[in-house]
Amino acid sequence: MEEWVMLLQEIGFPMVVSFYLLHRIESKLEAIHTALVSIGER
Predict the structure, then answer these.
(1) What's the predicted TM-score (pTM) here?
(2) What Pfam families does the database record attribute to this sequence (predicted)?
(3) What whole-number distance in Å separates Cα of residue 14 and Cα of residue 8?
């Protein structure tokens, strides 16, 4: 049981940071996509 807690502590923080960064990047990619689509419509 102690091994699982240690593993979760080691992996949990990097996973939270990764999901946070992916969420931020996703909104920026949507903005880029929208800009490219609007340029293509001209």
Answers:
(1) 0.56
(2) YvrJ
(3) 10
What are the start-end ranges of the E strands in 1-42? none
Distance between CA atoms of residues 34 and 3, nearest Å: 46
SS3 label, residue 9: helix
Q: What does the alpha-carbon distance between residue 6 and residue 26 come to, in Å, rounded to a whole number?
A: 31
Alpha carbon 6 to chain centroid, angstroms: 24
Each residue of 1-42: pLDDT tens digit?
888 888 888 888 889 899 999 999 999 999 999 999 999 887
How many beta carbons lie within 10 A of that of residue 38, not counting itself?
9
